[in-house]
Specification:
- With 436 residues, this protein is an alpha/beta fold.
- The protein has a domain of 199 residues: Rossmann fold (3-Layer(aba) Sandwich), CATH 3.40.50.
- It is built from 20 helices and 14 strands.
- The strands form three sheets. It has a six-stranded mixed β-sheet with strand order 4-5-13-10-11-12, with helices on both faces.
- Helix 12 runs parallel beside helix 14.
- The longest helix is centred in the last third of the chain and has 17 residues.
- The chain is globular and about 60 Å long.
- It binds pyridoxal-5'-phosphate.
- Pyridoxal-5'-phosphate binds next to helix 12.
Length: 436
Amino acid sequence: MRFYSTNSPQQTVSAQEALFHSLPADKGLYMPTPLPNLGASFFNDIADLSLADIGFALSKALFGDEISAVDLEELTQQAFPFDTPVVTLDAGKTNVLELFHGPSLAFKDVGARYMAGLMSHYSRRNDKEVNILVATSGDTGGAVAMGFHNVPGVRVSILYPSGRVSDLQEKQLTTLGGNIQAFEVDGSFDDCQAIVKQAFVDSDLNEILSLSSANSINIFRLIPQGFYYVRAYGQVRHAGKPVVFSTPSGNFGNLSAGVMVQQMGLPVEHFVAATNLNKVVPAYLQSGSYLPMSSVVTISNAMDVGSPSNFVRLAHLYGDDYDRFKANVAGYFYDDEQTRTGMKQIYEQYGYVSCPHTAIGIMGLQAYLNESKQDVTGIALATAHPSKFKPLVEDVLGTEIDVPERLAILANRPKQSIRIPALYDAFKESLLTSVS
Ligand SMILES: *Cc1c(COP(=O)(O)O)cnc(C)c1O
């Protein structure tokens, strides 16, 4: 499998190049080519396969020419020691795909752990240390920190907006130490992302350090996210109905991954793009014009993205054809008030505790099902465990919720971060100091 840039589809690079360099020099985004079509028979026969088994089968189809089956098997077994179960809320029509059973309790574990496994596979052959830079609005940082902790030859610098991530999210990225360093930025997520982007085009810095990204601009975060759509299909196929996925979205990596795996042959009837007030994609689906904006702060903070970096990929998957895009994806968005009401209703109606992002996914799914009136199996992606947003969830539901042990133990660990103003030069200076 090769990778081309969305800005110059004629030229391709190797998987290793796309993995380590993250961004093509022409500022496009890497896309895999060709996407293998696995055919209906593959998807008919997966009910008994675990997430790791499915990851292995798809990895073989994608990278079998570059990485041995033995290595791919080891990589996928180590990356996915957990499942992504489908939980039914009502008679099979509304289901949630729980993606939060990994170590950081958010779906980003899947992409981060697979990417870490691949980097460690290749870096056995590299002699230069890789420096991963990652901006986080909350969950990416924790998943990347845990996925890459103690991976030899890799150092991780995480930038997060001070005061804008939940306490437990902050603990996940600031308490590991070792090869993981957190930078607490006095600014917004967009500021963090801008600093990271500037670092990648700073030729002086790139001469000193070998830089790579673990944000979803890196195609290797996205590819493994396709695996759990397949795993979900394996769990509901027996119902014999068309399947609709609703993906609560911010940077639109998760939805891009779903569309990619659909193009590999996974039978998906329709997608729902569900967002908070950062609604540029639902607005695009409605009007046909794509108008990025400054991000708005909401209670579903992991989706506070006003200029989603994967929109280019999504559009590309539809051949930059608005009608094709619109024929496959429905868009819905919700403000904080509606999100709170949704979380409450989901709890009262089904006894299901959802984080605000997941609630938006469920509401989007139900809105679509009501409108389309088709008899389908609906699956909303549950992107994070509600306990990552404990104070909010408890306030909305008026009840106490459980915190899994692996998250609870972080509460007493001391936070270690380097606090910096939202200025590129300040970051560069403290990065160079911290790695030397
Ligand atoms: C990252 C994240 C999202 C948004 O995913 P994208 O791939 O950026 O669209 C949604 N919910 C949660 C909990 C997240 O952490």
